[in-house]
Amino acid sequence: MEVTSIVNGIIIDHVPAGTSLKVLEYLKIDPSKTKLALIMNTTSKRYGSKDIIKIEDDKDIDLDVLGFVARQATVDVVRGGTIVEKKQPNLPEHIVGVIKCVNPRCVTTTEPGIKQMFHLVHSERLEYRCDYCDEEAKL
């Protein structure tokens, strides 16, 4: 297997093993339209195993979403074949348009066009609640 280096783009490292496809889904990155490499279940000194996502070209990665989906991930920005910046996503206080409310009576469920918005209630339990009906998000 040969995975070449990227010249310009990003590397999302320390993604929990086996979750890189879910991470791409949450980040709204279409693998069929994006030049990328997935390295799944590789050895990690820190976590035992991990996934790595390499994305060629400039992609705006929503670090809030990444912090929600893969909090321990790191993002390396690559320019000219060299890592020029390292970013660490944080658990976001608010999430918009990522998860859906499970309450069938919530206004976001019954009315089209209303953005699904959630706020962090408890960071240790990763508990988010709907801004409109206060229903707990099912992750």
Automatic annotation (TrEMBL):
<dbReference type="GO" id="GO:0006207">
    <property type="term" value="P:'de novo' pyrimidine nucleobase biosynthetic process"/>
</dbReference>
<keyword id="KW-0479">Metal-binding</keyword>
<dbReference type="InterPro" id="IPR020545">
    <property type="entry name" value="Asp_carbamoyltransf_reg_N"/>
</dbReference>
<dbReference type="InterPro" id="IPR036792">
    <property type="entry name" value="Asp_carbatrfase_reg_C_sf"/>
</dbReference>
<dbReference type="GO" id="GO:0009347">
    <property type="term" value="C:aspartate carbamoyltransferase complex"/>
</dbReference>
<dbReference type="GO" id="GO:0046872">
    <property type="term" value="F:metal ion binding"/>
</dbReference>
<keyword id="KW-0665">Pyrimidine biosynthesis</keyword>
<protein>
    <submittedName>
        <fullName>Aspartate carbamoyltransferase regulatory subunit</fullName>
    </submittedName>
</protein>
<dbReference type="InterPro" id="IPR002801">
    <property type="entry name" value="Asp_carbamoylTrfase_reg"/>
</dbReference>
<dbReference type="InterPro" id="IPR020542">
    <property type="entry name" value="Asp_carbamoyltrfase_reg_C"/>
</dbReference>
<dbReference type="InterPro" id="IPR036793">
    <property type="entry name" value="Asp_carbatrfase_reg_N_sf"/>
</dbReference>
<keyword id="KW-0862">Zinc</keyword>
<dbReference type="GO" id="GO:0006221">
    <property type="term" value="P:pyrimidine nucleotide biosynthetic process"/>
</dbReference>
<dbReference type="Pfam" id="PF01948">
    <property type="entry name" value="PyrI"/>
</dbReference>
<keyword id="KW-0808">Transferase</keyword>
<feature type="domain" description="Aspartate carbamoyltransferase regulatory subunit C-terminal">
    <location>
        <begin position="95"/>
        <end position="136"/>
    </location>
</feature>
<feature type="domain" description="Aspartate carbamoyltransferase regulatory subunit N-terminal">
    <location>
        <begin position="1"/>
        <end position="88"/>
    </location>
</feature>
<dbReference type="Pfam" id="PF02748">
    <property type="entry name" value="PyrI_C"/>
</dbReference>
<dbReference type="GO" id="GO:0016740">
    <property type="term" value="F:transferase activity"/>
</dbReference>
